[in-house]
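User: I'm designing a mutation panel for 4-carboxymuconolactone decarboxylase and want to avoid disrupting the core. Could you give me a predicted structure to guide residue selection? Please restate the sequence first so the numbering is unambiguous.

Assistant: Good idea. Sequence first, for numbering, then the predicted structure tokens:
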Amino acid sequence: MNPRSQRTEAQALQDGMTVRREVLSDAHVDRAESGKTEFTEDFQDFISRYAWGEIWTRPGLDRRMRSACVLTALIAAGHWEEFEMHVKAALRNGLSTDEIKEILLQSAVYLSVPSANNAFKHAQKALSEYSG
């Protein structure tokens, strides 16, 4: 049996919060947690347990590869605020600015030149804000 299937929801949440903090930063997670309301707390729990605790903790891809996938997906969907956040996360996960640039160039071919153009604008903003 897969040992991951033995984990409890509490373990997935704990693992998810650890990875979420490492990838997005303590400051980001602290803001999200302090901004939780009765209306949004179930969603915050959901993304921490499933996105971060189940998917980002899987052994099949390293964090650099996951970041590359996330950037491409966010460009495709046009989720620019999330994209900027994940550009910074990609740097924390070890992608270089040149690698991020290559991901954006690749997206021009497979998604569209206008999407990549917008991605470069948002990436430049995120890179200028990144403090390490």
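For picking mutation sites, this is relevant: Residues 8-55 form one domain. Residues 84 and 126 are 5 Å apart (CA to CA).
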